[in-house]
Specification:
single chain; 122 residues; Rossmann fold; five-stranded parallel β-sheet; globular; Bact_response_regulator
Length: 122
Amino acid sequence: MNKTILIVDDSESLRQVVSIALVGAGYNVIEAKDGLDGLAKLDGTKVHLIISDVNMPNMNGIDFVEAVKELAKYKFTPIIMLTTENQPYLMEESRKAGAKAWLAKPFRPDQMLQAVSKILES
């Protein structure tokens, strides 16, 4: 069965790069342009993993992670933060909010796919 991954990022080009890599690896992809859009896409559909940016308009990635963890159906859905940020306090905030991993942009698609498969297998 194909696993579904939600990508939440305000950069359309970044969503495209991530989406192409994931679809190429056999995943289904849902895209959202910010945290609010991401929450709207969590409509009961089974999502196996979420990849989210930190800095986004309307609702940032950390607030988004906290909101996802409040949803019973998605409480245990693993979340990877994919961001240009590298401040330790933001990494810590993400971890506290419930994010499983942190990937820095720019990233190599193969690195991202490795992280995705590692988390989905655990």
